Amino acid sequence: MHLIIGTGKVGLPLSQLFHASNIPALSTSRSGNVPSPLTGVAFDWNDPSTFDNAFSHAKGASDVIQSIFLTPPPSIDMLQATKLFIDFAAKEKGVKRFVLLSSSLVPLGGIVHGAVHKYLLDIGVEYAAIRPSWFFQNFQPSPGFVFYADSTNGTVISSTGFSKIGFVDARDIAEAAFHAMTEKEPLNGSYIVFGPELLTYAHVAEILSTVTGRSITHRNLSRSEFKEHAKRVMPFPEAIATLEDLLRSGAEERLFLDGGAEDGKEKEVIWKGKRSFQSYAQEIKDGWIN
């Protein structure tokens, strides 16, 4: 049995991969309701009384939880927000393997997710950090929510200038996580997950323009403008602005082209998904036309 925290952009396709592979898995949501035909339990990072729900669900040896996929809650101190559950699962319930959803430019011990990554190493469990680039799904228009995608005004938004990014489909990220959870030998390192090509935000706008027949442009903000923009929807705008700084400096392009670090701290493996942004743009074009 495997436990997948959350049914978001990565958690849902990951749960669907387990179901399609006939490998037992539990999905979670705050209410315990998850899309059919998945099996769900209630889980809330802020409510320790829900932590045992997945473990008490077990009815036999085959239901023992072997690995947990961690999607941390949005918090400036992600270790503080996740440590209580990680300790409960690892130290009280004996879970051996944890797979953490992090970010491409956040290494072991880095900002936000990086502290959780280091904690998993420090407590001696089997682990993998899934460190994806920016999601294709960030460009799916969402009513009432504008961050990277503003379909009303026909813009994609960043402060990255002309820097290239390895945008990736969340379904490809889920495939990397599935592999990390089910492979016999633990990675004990990072899968840095990219799409098949490097694109600028201007390239993204051009592709969306082509498939929609509408003029869509890149709105390139200054750092201070982007931080103010992020404050409206993110609990850690400075961290997000710092990641944009790294993108603007070309850090992701170098990582995409040169591969992971070889500094001996941990294994870093580049995982490149197969889905293109061109094909994803076809899936979401109606949201940009209407």
TrEMBL record:
Transmembrane segments: none annotated. Residues 43-237 form the NmrA-like domain. It holds the Pfam family NmrA. InterPro entries: Ergot_Alk_Oxidoreductase (IPR051604), NAD(P)-bd_dom_sf (IPR036291), NmrA-like (IPR008030). It comes from the Eukaryota. This is Agroclavine dehydrogenase. It comes from Gymnopus androsaceus JB14.
